[in-house]
TrEMBL record:
Listed EC numbers: 2.10.1.1
GO biological process: Mo-molybdopterin cofactor biosynthetic process
The keyword Magnesium is assigned to this record: yes
InterPro entries (alphabetical): MoaB/Mog-like_dom_sf, MoaB/Mog_dom, MoCF_biosynth_CS, MoeA-like, MoeA_C_domain_IV, MoeA_C_domain_IV_sf, MoeA_linker/N, MoeA_linker/N_sf
Stated role: Catalyzes the insertion of molybdate into adenylated molybdopterin with the concomitant release of AMP.
Protein source organism: Flavivirga eckloniae
Molecular-function GO term, any one: molybdopterin molybdotransferase activity
Protein name listed in UniProt: Molybdopterin molybdenumtransferase
Catalysed reaction, written as an equation: adenylyl-molybdopterin + molybdate = Mo-molybdopterin + AMP + H(+)
Amino acid sequence: MITINEALNAVKINISPLLKEAIKPLERCGGYQLSKDIASPINMPPFRQSAMDGYALNLHNDLSYTLIGEVKAGDNHQPTLKPGDAVRIFTGAPVPETANTVMMQEKVATNGSKITIENDVPIGHNIRPMGEQVKTGDIALKKGTKLTPAAIGYLTSLGITEAAVYKKPSVALITTGNELIEAGEPLAYGKIYESNSKMLLNALYNLKFYDVTIHKVEDDYIKTKNKLETVINNNDLVIVTGGISVGDYDFVGKALKELQVKEVFYKVKQKPGKPLFFGKKEDTAIFALPGNPAAALSCFYAYVYIALQKMMNYNTIELPRIKAKSMSEFVKRGDRPQFLKAIYNDNQVEILEGQNSSMLQTFALSNALVFVPEDVSIINLNDELEVIVLPV
């Protein structure tokens, strides 16, 4: 059995970026990372652009100007302004080449075709220069940039419709157990509704990993081995829940060994989630999580999350850890470090009731995990605690 830090380091060391490339439509690139630099095909803005509603002027030595026309956003005509001429102009509209400044409308008095500005205005005022954001041929976004909604909006504004990105990992979720049935079926005595697959599927979706398949297998050694062999050969990441302990019907560990999966570690000194397995076969990473739902989800956020971020070559690979003041009292039993379900808000954290590894009700209310080291047994009000902030 290894420590949490040893387990975390083992995941970081043994997971490498996938670096497989794909060309995707830009609107489907959210959360992906660019695999190539993107050069701008145009200037942005592509013309001199008014930064506000007002009047474009050809400056002269007077505060009065003659109004000769109007330019709206989207217009493509070019009024010719002599010194002392002005045109009404609107935000985003092209500034005529013969205009050299824009005065905001709040500082202009109008009288028919004559306008008077309040004060002198410098050349270039309120004009966005052509290519102010980026010039044709310049790098718009560098290789390795994570495509956020703003980044996708920016590239779209340049007329770009697709991008070369690093592929996200394909993930297989396997649930094991004869006692598990699908929600919606009649609940016979001795059966329980299977929740881990839907829970982990949505945890992955929430992190924008969508290439996910779900597989269910009975407590049968041959079926377990065959299913594992298939998904390991066809996925970048395999997540198994249940069947990894040492019971008579826990076949996952034996099957992984026969399939020559290299064991990186098995069992971590922690609660929940002691029977956690991490291994590799060639380039495929395999996590076998405990079957208890709260334990499985805790291990997902503590370890699988890091593996996913490493595969994507992101700079930040761990969930945020912050300090917060305890609004609860808690007594930790045993000598294992614990991840406690909690609610974090405004630098304060409340440890919730119902910390059993099988209980999801408390987890459903949580937005954080409190980490309690092995040398801490009692938490008092106002103690400073380490809090892992979960994705929302």
